[in-house]
Amino acid sequence: MDWGSDAIAAMLRDLDFQYVALVPGASYRGLHDSIVNYLGNENPKMLLCLHEEHAVAIAHGYAKVAEKPMLAIVHSNVGLMHATMAFFDAWCDRVPVVVLGATGPVDAMKRRPWIDWIHTTADQGALVRDYTKWDDQPGSPEAAIESLLRATQIASTPPYGPVYVNLDVSIQEQKLEKPIALPDKARYRVPSPAAPSAADVRKVLELFAGTKRPLIVMGRMSRKIDDWNARVALAEALGARVIGDFRAGSTFPTEHPLFLSQAAQYLPEAVTAGLREADVILSFDSIDLAGMLSTAWGKEQVGATIVNVSMDRYLHKGWSKDYEALPPVDIDIPVVPDVMVHALLEALQSAQKKLRHNEGRTAAPSTPAGDAGREIGVRAFSRQLGDAFAGTDVCYIRLPLGANGADFTFRHPLDFLGGDGGGGVGAGPGLAVGAALALRGTGRLPVAVLGDGDFLMGCTALWTAVANEIPLLVIVSNNRSYFNDEVHQERVALIRSRPVERKWIGQRLDDPAPDLAMIARAQGAVGIGPVRTAGDVEAALARAIAEVKAGKVCVVDVYVAPEYASLGTAAAATTAETVKA
Ligand SMILES: Cc1ncc(C[n+]2csc(CCOP(=O)(O)OP(=O)(O)O)c2C)c(N)n1
Ligand SMILES: [Mg+2]
């Protein structure tokens, strides 16, 4: 250990970081050298990226599966600027990520002309402070070690979030007089989450004892199978129907008789009806509880008693309004949601009480059959995906904006990882690579179904998967449009009595349609498509699955109809009808 950055690298290894996604830069050439030459590029191993936004998105995707932070490093102010949207997504998604950056020399006397000056920023962390849990700029190698310990601890303590540590080039390149002893990390562990009070558990159970139509809303929950099983047992013991949230991924078995529907950006009728019918609603860290309640009750007062189990308030800051509207709450319990699930279940089991029998579930509306020679409808395509993956353990890392939650069956917490948090288009490919990295070797097939806009903005993230032999299947649900915004233009046209048929102008990604399979091949991935008809989907997916099972990165470009199955509730209504309604 001869240099400041050797000590920093040693600390990173001690913190168990296996991988670091990065784009290099002179501001951290010291640390770069230490990872390569002091650590031998192992633990953490470098995953070179083609854009800083991908580096942070990869760490985000990894943590969505692993539920622990991965490391990313970005270069000075410019790399950090590139990475900002990915920070925001990780922040809104409440996912732990540790990002390192660099600046300086902070001491102007040590700066090289020009480049060191433009790449030195006072208070660089301010660029991301409003959407990180914590940031720091330590002043010595010793302080950097403490900073890394603290950063990892803070990111990994619920509610999770990204953190940023900015390393002055001078502390990295400082010659050490003697090695720095690393602290005993067992003394800097993440605290166990607080348990709910016995009084709160009793209050909730008393409430449920007197309820007739209880409802549980699952928001951001863990991806552990024990927690999943406990959720099922709790819903059964309480006789409560369950609403999931497409944005939060797979949190409850969708085929369970108590499962009603998935909340999403556009709330399905089954969700609003379920909310309105309920007399007690137990919300576990819902992404937008107040929004759901106000959609269901409109201007009327919310008719149900609300129990809110969430620690999210500890992350609310002034700059971003991602905390959503303030919900009316009758019993407010700020603990980790799955901890509360177990506490309620244990209390119930010790009382040996079953409160109610299960009620039947209304079946999801059936999807119209695809016509082999015709354009591929979004719902029919979802069904074809289900057929292609039948019998395979799949992790849907991401599903496109137009997908309808009712068309997917989830049986395990890793069946679907939900959204990106911040609604940042272009996050998909990076998230997919990171999640696939965490899934590598688990036997679960990593599948990201991306919009074409999302794919095109972030597609060079795939090179990192190819270069590091991370198997991944990307299926592009390609409507050749930023179609979400056609829906908006249609709405505006209807409101303003303007021609709806012009909604596509400035939205279509066509003429020429970018060749997505060629973009995949250009990066060393397998590229299949475009697949233009429903009849060709099956063979294309079969080939793609075989490629990924053989260890490849494969992109299948499937042309789908420009329509949103997620809009409205019944079978794929045209957007015009939905908007008018
Ligand atoms: C960084 C960013 N730019 C623009 C938007 C606005 N926006 C939301 S969805 C969308 C279209 C995304 O296109 P695609 O991924 O193809 O999905 P589609 O709506 O076509 O299904 C756009 C441009 C955004 N959310 N984020
Ligand atoms: Mg599109």
Describe this structure in words.
With 581 residues, this protein is of the alpha/beta class. Helices cover 37% and strands 15% of the residues. The chain has helices at 4-14, 29-38, 52-66, 76-92, 115-118, 141-156, 169-172, 198-209, 225-238, 269-277, 289-297, 337-351, 378-388, 428-439, 452-458, 462-467, 483-496, 516-522, 534-549, 575-580, and strands at residues 19-22, 45-48, 71-73, 97-103, 134-136, 162-168, 214-218, 241-245, 259-263, 280-284, 305-309, 331-333, 394-398, 445-451, 472-478, 526-531, 553-559. Residues 400-402, 423-426, 451-454, 479, 481-485 line the site of thiamine diphosphate.
Write the layout of secondary structure elements.
Layout: H1 4-14, E1 19-22, H2 29-38, E2 45-48, H3 52-66, E3 71-73, H4 76-92, E4 97-103, H5 115-118, E5 134-136, H6 141-156, E6 162-168, H7 169-172, H8 198-209, E7 214-218, H9 225-238, E8 241-245, E9 259-263, H10 269-277, E10 280-284, H11 289-297, E11 305-309, E12 331-333, H12 337-351, H13 378-388, E13 394-398, H14 428-439, E14 445-451, H15 452-458, H16 462-467, E15 472-478, H17 483-496, H18 516-522, E16 526-531, H19 534-549, E17 553-559, H20 575-580
Parallel strand pairs: 1-2, 1-3, 3-4, 4-6, 5-6, 7-8, 7-10, 8-9, 10-11, 11-12, 13-14, 14-15, 15-17, 16-17
Helix pairs in contact: 1-2, 1-6, 3-4, 3-14, 8-12, 9-12, 10-11, 13-19
Residues 451-453, 479, 481-483 line the site of magnesium ion.
Name the features:
581 residues, alpha/beta, 6-stranded parallel sheet, 20 helices, 15% strand, binds thiamine diphosphate, binds magnesium ion
